Amino acid sequence: MQTLVLLALVGLGAQLVDGSLGMAYGVTSTTLLLAIGTNPAMASATVHLAEIGTTLASGASHWRFGNVDWKVVARIGVPGAIGAFAGATFLSWLSTELAKPVMALLLLGLGLYVLLRFTFQGLRTDQLGKPLRRRFLTPLGLVAGFMDATGGGGWGPVGTPAILASGRLEPRKVVGSIDTSEFFVAVAASAGFLLGLGTAGINGPWALALLAGGLVAAPIAAWLVRHVPPRVLGSAVGGLIVLTNVRTLISTDLLTVEGPARTAVYLVVFAAWAAAVVHSVRAHRRLQAGERPVEEPAPAGAA
Q1: C-alpha span between 230 and 157 (Å, rounded)
Q2: Which phi and psi angles does 255 have, rounded to 5°?
Q3: CA 183 → CA 130, 259, 281, distances in Å?
């Protein structure tokens, strides 16, 4: 029972982040399942099954708040589904011993990308309003979908920063469109895992617990996307993903670190994470200060 409550809270927190940042539901949830010893393919399959419901609820909430560009959803969602199905089939055939460090490496890479991307880069606005072309969205969807299924997350960490970096779509619509199109990815990935693993490869109660938390958070996150600074949230989430997957990697046969060396690794990761969050907070405050209008001095003799 305690595990189900914990998973529900994780699903709630992950969906709050995903719905307001456009990424990290799958990465965060899969990372936790790996940390408690779940088979990598089973972890990704369980998370993607839960995501069918959470992405549907999230998409509906974002649509209600006007955060969705349906052309982008159609152009990236279909190739994303194809990539996700291929990735799920690939992961289902990997052995558990090989899959765990492989997935941890993928998640670590995605976490570093999220951390660095949001800590050191701002959002472009000079291209805002220009259309996003199929020749950009189609390969992006294929790669992001494949990464999402094999890494237990990656649709948002790959797709959201790429579209944000183009500067052609306002941030809230990037987040809303990525979250909405992820429904197709979740359905395709789940189909691939069912084909490769069967129903025995999915933990139904865990998926329902993640789903329950996500359903509660979805409408709140769609509203928060207009108010939460993406830069700060991205640094915080990226650091959490990096820390958790470093822990997984140094506990595997591939890279075993014990004693003082392990403590030193954790201290370095914590320090870098804290510095990244502080930098993001300061950068956000500087940006806010620069956007405030300068007050004109009162005329001489004014009361």
Answers
A1: 13
A2: -150, 85
A3: 25, 43, 32
Residue 243 DSSP SS3? helix
Strand partners, 255: 252
Is the distance from CB of 24 to CB of 34 less than 8 angstroms? no
Predicted confidence at residue 298, as pLDDT, reads 47
Residues with Cβ within 8 Å of residue 13, at least 6 apart in sequence: 28, 213, 217
| Average pLDDT value for residue range 99-108 | 70
User: pLDDT digit string (tens) for 242-298?
Assistant: 887 787 777 766 667 777 888 888 899 999 989 998 998 898 888 888 755 444 444
196 and 41 Cβ atoms separated by less than 8 Å: yes
The structure tokens listed for 71 are 């052309």
Distances (CA, A) of 62 to 41, 126, 137, 289: 30, 25, 20, 29
Q: Integer distance in angstroms from the first to the last C-alpha of the chain?
A: 68
CA–chain centroid gap for 277, Å, is 17
Could you list the beta-strand ranges (E) of the chain.
Answer: 251-252, 255-256
On the 0-12 / 13-18 / 19+ scale of CB atoms within 10 A, 76 is buried
What percentage of residues in the chain have a pLDDT greater than 70?
Answer: 74
Q: What angle do CA 287, 172, 11 make, to 5 degrees?
A: 105
